[in-house]
Amino acid sequence: MNVLEGDILEMKKPHPCGDKRFKVHRIGIDFRLECMGCGRIVLAPRVKIEKNIKKIIRDSEEH
Ligand SMILES: [Zn+2]
Fold it and tell me: What is the pLDDT of residues 47-63, one digit of tens each?
């Protein structure tokens, strides 16, 4: 799964606020994501996030 900074990730499990979309701020051993619903910053290990991705939404693919 090739995640880039700036991507929007649609997750299988939603954030407690109910939104499933997270924006990728920083990539490393841990990913820093921002919830699109409430704006909270989430830090989680790459492996854990990759398992939870349903799809990647990239600007060039939006219609
Ligand atoms: Zn949220």
Answer: 999 999 999 999 765 54
**Using CB atoms within 10 A of its CB, is residue 54 exposed (0-12), middle (13-18) or buried (19+)?**
exposed
Distance CA 63, CA 49 (A): 25
- For the entire predicted model, the pTM comes to 0.88
- What does the block give as tokens for 55? 């799809």
All residues with CB under 5 Å from ion ligand 1: 15, 17, 35, 37-38
User: CB neighbours (10 Å) of residue 63?
Assistant: 2
Distance 38 CA to ligand 1 centre (A): 4
